[in-house]
Amino acid sequence: MPGFYEDVIQPNQRERDLTADIPLTRAELIDQLGIEAPLLTDKNGQDLKETLYFEPTLSIEGISSGWQGAGVKTVLPARAEAKLEARLVPGMDPDKTFNQVKNYLTEQGYDDLTLTKTLGQPGYRSDMSDPEILRVVNVVDKLYDTEPIVAPTGAGTGPMYYIHEVVQAPIASLGIGYTNNRDHAPNENIRLADYDDDIVVIKQLIATYEN
Question: pTM, whole model, 2 decimals?
Answer without folding.
Answer: 0.85
